[in-house]
Amino acid sequence: MPPEFDLIGRHFRALAGPAALNLEDDAAVLAPPPGRELVMAADTMVAGVHYLPDDPADGVAQKLLRVNLSDLAAMGADPLGYLLTVSAPSDTPDAWFAGFAAGLGRDQAIYGLSLLGGDTTSTPGPVTLSLTIIGHVAPGQAVRRRGAKPGDEVWVTGTIGDGALGLAVSLGKLTDATGFLRRRYCVPSPRLGLPLAGAVSAAIDVSDGLLQDLGHLCRLAGCGAEVEAEAVPLSPAARAAGPDWFANCLGGGDDYELLLAVPPGKGEALADECRLRGVPLTRIGRFLAGEMQVRVLDGKGRPMAIAHHGWSHF
Amino acid sequence: MPPEFDLIGRHFRALAGPAALNLEDDAAVLAPPPGRELVMAADTMVAGVHYLPDDPADGVAQKLLRVNLSDLAAMGADPLGYLLTVSAPSDTPDAWFAGFAAGLGRDQAIYGLSLLGGDTTSTPGPVTLSLTIIGHVAPGQAVRRRGAKPGDEVWVTGTIGDGALGLAVSLGKLTDATGFLRRRYCVPSPRLGLPLAGAVSAAIDVSDGLLQDLGHLCRLAGCGAEVEAEAVPLSPAARAAGPDWFANCLGGGDDYELLLAVPPGKGEALADECRLRGVPLTRIGRFLAGEMQVRVLDGKGRPMAIAHHGWSHF
Q1: A265: Cβ–Cβ under 8 A, 6 or more apart, which residues?
Q2: Does residue A50 have a known ligand-binding role?
Q3: Which of A166, B11, B53, B172 is deepest in the core (most CB within 10 A)?
Q4: Does a structural domain hold residue B311?
């Protein structure tokens, strides 16, 4: 048997759910949950672009899975399974694959999903990982990016900026003795299971930076937004980095929190529901009629200049 | 707007079906066809590993899609849509993306499916493409690799070896004035739409080489098989290459024909059905009780030594 099959047998077969047919077949066969719509997304991570080549393999696997789970979270969908393709240099140590599979296994248990299928190939380039996530949602209940209205409030889950500052810590540009920021950068927490359907006008996950992702909601809604700088929830570790890092918090990516457009009067009840599920929700601004631009206001309501408006992976 | 969004807008939005929500959202939302099971597979292609870096981009796109469609074909499933991730060097010319999207568009029209979603990222390495195909099949009717029985006949669609010889032509090791072999290598024909359910015991697509893929069916069935060398259908171009290339025809990959285990007495009727759909079907051997090995017999029934038994991508 060729090495590819050994690799699958040693590391990936244990992750396969019933639909994966023991990874023996050309494809998985999945009976969709009756009366539900399917939600599907795919994200790629490249060593040296989306993570540092010496990041532990289990954390890389968890980030890959969680970044995709975050896309389901933004649609208000529940996870079902995933397909995975791994391109790796042929001298990649077996221990790397073992660690990678261990990270996937840990998160499969946490989030209740399983491997459906995939492919492993060699590459002369960096490790390149691609994951397609499959989830499900009640018909017509998927939350969209399009739909924010002037007057809606801007709310966010969790804290903003930890991802960007965690990257800065990884690169040696910032210190954080607690390790919190780097953990948040390496292993984000997808905000699954929140009761968004019917409660929000629009949602997006904060992957490219708060201001850029808010800009996406504005562009699709044909309106603008303003954010109160002092309302943006920061973790103690992000606060400890000091005000010089605040622009990075708003402009950097990798938070994987949810950014929500919430009709006026509905935010507090939603926040209570989210808090019951262990997820803080904070109002940070509002959508405005007029120009499709995002403004940040200081404590006195004056527009602030924020240099870096987000991150493009291309 | 960052360049990634420009790229999606310029080249990929026109390929998106209704479920893709205009590629504006975090994920696609797909209502599964009522009363059907979903069939899903993912395959990766890396420039310099699975295709030659200067192969035309439209052909690369078609091969990527068709290789995945071939996995659906092997399960007897019909295509629905696909998710695509593209990692490319940041200096990849726009014309490459235009050609790539044109190839996808052409095959979407031929095979009746559409783009559901995906991701584009930069990479310091070679272009790395990953595609997840989504199809559907009647409940319980997916054809498996497992299920061949001693006494079943071995049948194949189309002609065998064109893929391997087409690669040899691409590498300058073989000449073929007709261009047929190279076309077969670059743009395979997935054998979708054949009435396999109920007619075959097992199926696999020939991607790693006839003998290796037949070995997979044997391993899963716990039996052996023999192939009559003179019965293996060769194209005129493969025949013209001469007997020295015959081992490559049996051992090389990239044919994307279907290899079928057919219960005795059912082959001719299935072959008639396939011929009506324009696909020749040829009996080339049989499954045998006993040792899990694949033997090739010459015209006098004597075992032949075939050096190269297939291709592993890792």
Answers
A1: none
A2: yes
A3: A166
A4: no
